[in-house]
Predict the structure.
Amino acid sequence: MLPLSLLNAALSSPVLVELKNGETYGGHLVSCDPWMNVNLKEVICTSNDGTTFTRIPEIYIKGNTIKYLRVPDQIIDKVKEDQAKEPKPSFVKSRNNDRNQSDKNTRGGHRGGRGGDRGRGGDRGGRGDRGNSNRGRR
């Protein structure tokens, strides 16, 4: 089960979010994105020591500050059932399987590398010794 599919299924449901600093936010999930940034409404914030409670109408929480999210068990069961009903994807053959296997052993392979036996400098005027070892020296 992927976390984003679970969060998308939990939209408009009550959730509990604990942050890395220990604060917790309980409210209704309004939206989420691929980076797990979440929007909550009708939020109750609890301080990290558990002594202070604050009511907030709406809050945006960045995904990189979230330690964990708790969603209702009914949502988890619903997502599990939905995934069980979906047919398993048949994996498509890789494009590389159709190509000649000997091409993979050459330099550069399929990616348009330097090609052939030409390494650094090669025959393109690199700094290699060309018989002019005294050139420019006095």
